[in-house]
Amino acid sequence: MNELKLKAYGKINLSLDVVDKLPNGYHKIESVMQDIDLYDDVKIKASKDASSSYKVVLEISDKNLPKGPANTAVKGALAVLEGYVGEYNCFNINIVKNIPVAAGLAGGSGNGAAAMLGINKIIGYRYSLNELIKIGAKLGADFPFSIIMNAFKNKEFLAEMEGIETSGITALAKGIGEDLKVIDNFPSYVILANPGISVSTKDVYENIDNCKMLKRPATNEFIKSIESKEYDKAYSLMNNVMEEYTLNKYPEVLSLKKEMFKKFKADKVLMSGSGPTLVAYFSNREKAEKAYNENELECKMWLSKTGIYKN
Question: With contact defined as beta carbons under 8 Å apart, do 147 and 136 qualify?
Fold first, then answer.
């Protein structure tokens, strides 16, 4: 097989805490991450030409995104191909974007994960799932989870990869995102709303240490409430410390959160990642669909689900 189509799914943070700053400037996190059904379409085609070295060529629907080594899909592809000598040396990646950029949904990391998973399959499963996670950890904090989650949701195409049985759609991520533990799913229906601005994750991390944390996530208690299916309690324990910075710096995000809470009457409204995307959580489909169909916001909205997967 020299051609493959995958869906690169985004993620949301059900809980996010920044627990420490490392000497190299990176931060340790503790976060419960979960899939959403919003995805980008990724197509990979491998070929052979007369060149003695391999190359990665990217086409992407969002013309504002880079096509070279700065793009996360190219980074992921090159990481998997490092030192590779084999049947193919030209890898064309085509991405149709649906997930908003710089929105806290790991759309870029999802693209990188899909590129890694797809190329790894095409070249004969050079790496196991666990090895891909270790490679991805060097590329970004959201890469490891994006890899195991997208492996799970595309497992019909990746069934022969070593370690695929350890993949999942919900996980506790620690460290710089590389320390993963798959946990029970937290099934919810969600409305995603994006105010149409971009938030720099780097900027948030650089300033989060100066924020006064009024409330920190009780991560272990949150996970226990999911495991015991005490979902009302789980909603009450959801927390994202990055709201302390983003909601203060970007008043439009704070205003949107208040509007969503008032209009949607959701079980929870919480920012994902560093923002600015906000997520309204509902315990049942009918309530989510009613809120989505009967309310309008002055920004783009998506109706989706999280923690719900059927073969």
Answer: yes
Output the CA torsion 136→75→71→74 (10° steps).
-120
Residues acting as catalytic residues: 11, 142
Looking at domain 188-306, its CATH superfamily turns out to be GHMP kinase, C-terminal domain (3.30.70.890)
Tens place of pLDDT for every residue, the chain, 311 residues?
799 999 999 999 999 999 888 888 788 999 999 999 999 999 999 999 887 788 999 999 999 999 999 999 999 999 999 999 899 999 999 999 999 888 889 999 999 999 999 999 999 999 999 999 999 999 988 999 999 999 999 999 999 999 999 999 999 999 989 999 999 999 999 999 999 998 888 899 889 888 887 789 999 999 999 999 999 999 999 999 999 999 999 999 999 999 999 999 999 999 999 999 999 999 999 999 999 999 989 899 999 999 997 64
Per the CB < 8 A criterion, the answer to whether 95 and 60 are in contact is: yes
Domain with CATH 3.30.230.10 in the chain: 3-182
Distance CA 108, CA 117 (A): 14
The Cα–Cα gap between 230 and 142 comes to: 27
Residues of the chain with CATH 3.30.70.890: 188-306
CB environment 117-141: b (16+ within 10 A), e (fewer): bbbbbbbeebbebeebbebbbebbb
- Report, at the CATH architecture level, how domain 3-182 is classified: 2-Layer Sandwich (3.30)
The answer to whether 278 and 260 are in contact (CB under 8 A) is: yes
- pTM, full prediction: 0.94
The residues with which 57 forms a beta bridge, in sequence order, are: 92
Q: Report the distance separating Cα 264 and Cα 281, nearest Å.
A: 9
